[in-house]
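INSTRUCTION: Work out how this chain folds

Fields: amino acid sequence; protein backbone structure tokens

Chain under study, with its fold:
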Amino acid sequence: MKKYLVLLFPLLLLYGCTSGPNVYYDVPREFVNAELMNQSISDCRSGLTGLKIFLDPGHGGEDRKNTGPMGIAIEADVNLRVSLYLRSFLEQAGATVIMSREIDKTVALKDRSVLANESGADIFISVHHNAPGKEGDNWTNFTSTYYHATETDFEFEPMEKDLAKYIQRDLAFAMRNSGGLGSFDGTYSDYWIYPKAGFSVLRLTEIPSVLLECGFHTHNWEEQRLALDEFNKAQAWGIFKGLCKYFRNGVPKISFRKTESDSTKKDLYFTIADKNGIDYKTIKVYFDSTETNNFSFDNVSNTVKVGIDSDLYNTCDIRIVAMNTKGNSSYPFRYKFVNIK
């Protein structure tokens, strides 16, 4: 019996006295092996170097009301700690990071999108921790990542869903959480919360955007983990690893090249740049919100040739979407066609 007491005593010191089960979490292997950490960050540089990433730690300042039942995890502070650790990992891998806030201060919701749109960043990530809609619910807990709109909406961008999938997979793994019962993989359209509107920061932010609800600060055990600095660092590592894998697989970029015209038709040429090559079967072209088959693709020059009848269109938005051979969709691209006769 004395031997058991001796073994249990360090655990009591480590986890403290709680009315429920002890709160456990896994430390990433890289955190206890400097060589492995350095190698992991080095491996990410090929995809992240030169990227500009905007991080938005949700809430803060006058908005500090979201907290767990024990009052030890204030969402605004947890969001900031995770974001600061994530910034550190990203900068070590060669990315430039801009933040909506670096301290506990008030940033208006609309201002977060304005700052992001003016930043010139490649992507926007808003970091949050969730709470259930029903008061007194302290048993719901899962990790989720949101993208804007749904596949049937014109404003939906496939690459945002791709980005959400990569982050969600590694963040949920780092936290050892499920993705909830409302989604097969833990990614959700923000229309699931606000039908046909979505989250303000995703709707108003013009660069590719996702919003993370890392876990529920209202959950009894999760709150205790979220209050731990090391666990916040592990969360950030999961997000970082997801970003690393996503960008390492490449994201196609589309650009306008030139126009050729005759009396009734104009041919517009667009280049799709990607290191892994383009899957030509995935290319889609839209005139405004209508898909068209009036295009061709040259896989040698990676050029999309789009034919448009100048008698039918005075102006229209040309939208092109394509995937590379790794399955990553292209950055959002729209070209404003104006018929000059």
